[in-house]
Amino acid sequence: MASPGKISYDTYTPPERNNPVERGGNELSTKQTNFLRIWCRDFASGSSVPDESVTALAQVLQTKPELVHEHINQIYKSHPTKEQVRAYLFAETNNHLQPETRELVKNFVTACRRRYSPTDKRRSVNKGRYCCTFKCGYRTERAFDWRRHEETHEPQDIWLCTLCTPKPFLVGRKDKFLKHVNDKHSNVVAKEIQDSSKVDYVPTADLNCPYCGTESGTWDERCKHVVGHFEDVKRGAKRVRIVREDDEDEDELS
Ligand SMILES: [Zn+2]
Ligand SMILES: [Zn+2]
Ligand SMILES: [Zn+2]
């Protein structure tokens, strides 16, 4: 059998394409296909599965390598979108929330991630080397403000006001939550409901650097890493290359 070498989403075809595997006893079971799907999700690096991994997988599953090849090919053809992956992650990590809260939080997070238009009028000052990695056009001179802005797109903490019914109030910043309570529920001491209103939310941010692809372990690391790129620009680099999947272009950071 000729080695197909690295398998890619686009070019890989099963080695025995002209000699289709007999159906019936030669199909993978649901248990085996589930195993492959999870394996690809957790261990496949980028868009390729090396030949030796396919052989090893076939041994583990006690099946023919060509069936594994064929199934992996199918998995890549139906490669989930970024949104599907995010929805899946959210469901996995926030399963402990009450269904009603979970739905509210999911909608809130989705709305936060939606980009603001670069031309909307909500910013009066828009200068500086620190720029929004969600590409809404925001820029600032201060790293602190930059991070706070990033968290408007990717909230790390969420408060759901326990006093607001039936229309829920959610917010991603403690100072804004306290202000809400002071403004809307003036008979209550804001700090007293701060803890009970905080949602036990597990953030599901994309921790890959949008400039170089480096994956961080935490949001904090990710932010410090990205700030490093802006500091590099300060030290003389002309620009940072944006490598977000959805629209690839370069951001001038001068
Ligand atoms: Zn932004
Ligand atoms: Zn409220
Ligand atoms: Zn980077």
TrEMBL record:
Q: Where is this region: Disordered?
A: 1-27
InterPro entries in alphabetical order: Znf_C2H2_type (IPR013087)
* C2H2-type domain span: 130-153, 159-185, 207-229
- Its protein name is C2H2-type domain-containing protein
Query: Which species expresses this protein natively?
Result: Ophiobolus disseminans
